[in-house]
Amino acid sequence: MEEKNYESIIEGILFTMGDSVEPEKMAAALEIDKKEVISIIENLQKKYEEENRGVRITELDGAYQMCTNPEIYDYLIRIAKQPRKYVLTDTVLETLSIIAYKQPVTKSEIEKIRGVSSDHAVSKLVEYGLVEEIGRSPAPGRPMLFGTTEDFLRTFGVSSIEELPTLSTVEVEEFKAEAEAEATVKLGV
Question: Which end of the chain has less Cβ packing within 10 Å, N or C?
Fold first, then answer.
């Protein structure tokens, strides 16, 4: 390989790893000398500086890491301060409803109610900060218990779980009938 290809590989390694990487590790992966790796990194550092790129390669205690150019921090902060948009699909919203009304609740209890795996939906809700792990169940295997967060309350404009709307027994029976009819149609019964 020529040096330009080594540049691309080193750049890709530093970008992908996120953390600092020792030149010895890169040299071993590239099967070249550590001094050559350092020389390539120094050339990349100069290039980024000369071209006023949005990224830099920084040396941290003998290892190298790709990081953001400090000149663009203000723009990053503006982006980070913008409110996040959540995509609450029907599946995610259904899972959130179960957690909100049944908390504390385990994944298996959610799945029993929904009838399907809920790993993805629960993970998304945790990622969005609407749900969190709040402990472990005393049941065998000590499964994780989930509950809603303060962000959930803020997002849905309630100050406590007690303010969530309650369903009458008639509404519950109507929902059950609709769900059963929908399940029958999907199963082709």
Answer: C
Question: pLDDT averaged over the chain?
Answer: 88
Q: Which 3 state secondary structure label does DSSP give 144?
A: strand
pLDDT at 109 over 50: yes
The whole-number average pLDDT for the span 166-184 is 73
Residue 133 is inside which H or E element, if any? strand 131-136
**Angle 90-102/107-114 helices, nearest 10 degrees?**
120
Q: pLDDT for 18-55, tens place per residue?
A: 889 999 999 999 999 999 999 999 999 999 999 999 99
What distances in angstroms separate CA 11 from CA 41, 43, 54, 70, 182, one per listed residue? 8, 11, 14, 19, 52
Quick count: other Cβ atoms within 10 Å of Cβ 85? 7
Rounded Cα distance between 156 and 159, Å, is 9
Q: For residue 167, which of 176, 158, 154, 155 has the smallest C-alpha distance? A: 176
Q: Is 135 left (phi over 0), alpha (psi -120 to 50) or beta?
A: left
Rounded distance between C-alpha atoms, residue 97 and residue 151, angstroms: 15
Place of tokens 């902060």: 77
**Cα separation of 74 and 53, whole Å?**
15
Q: How many CA atoms lie within 13 A of 168 on its CB side?
A: 3
